[in-house]
Amino acid sequence: MPRLAAMAGVLLLIAITAWWIGDNAPRPTVLVRLPDLSPEATKGQALFQQHCSPCHGPKAGGTDQGPPLVHPVYHPNHHADGAFALAITQGVTAHHWPFGDMPPVAGVTLAQVPMLAAFVRELQKANGIY
To answer: Residue 122 maps to which CATH number?
Structure first.
């Protein structure tokens, strides 16, 4: 019986350690090269700075609050531009990253989404994701 209690204690310690490491693991960020932007993407950059950069970083490279959008996960074949519209207007349930759910973004209209998408897509292309 003492052997069983010791094994249970070790398993509990492993579970607590795994939870703590998972919850406190460094969040992924990427270095992003900022290219010359089109006029639409330049407008999107201004919107991004205002509404998105606190979580996704000034160049969409991620922070400890939100994932990098310049990442293969957000390749246009996996997350089309419509995914940006849904995430911005409706929020999104966390499924790729351990940051938690993304709430809808207040103050961004559907008419502004293509500018935001242009900014992110031009960043992605300049950084090898296209």
So the answer is: 1.10.760.10
Which residues constitute the domain of residue 98? Answer: 28-126
Report the largest interatomic distance among the alpha carbons of the chain, rounded to a whole angstrom: 72
Quote the radius of gyration of the chain (alpha carbons, Å): 19
* Domain-located, residue 87: yes
pLDDT tens track, the chain, 130 positions: 677 665 555 554 454 544 444 455 556 789 999 999 999 999 999 999 999 999 999 999 999 999 999 999 999 999 999 999 999 999 999 998 999 999 999 999 999 999 999 999 999 999 999 8
92: three-class secondary structure by DSSP: strand
Domain count, the chain: 1
Listing DSSP states for 113-129 in one string gives HHHHHHHHHHHHHHTT-
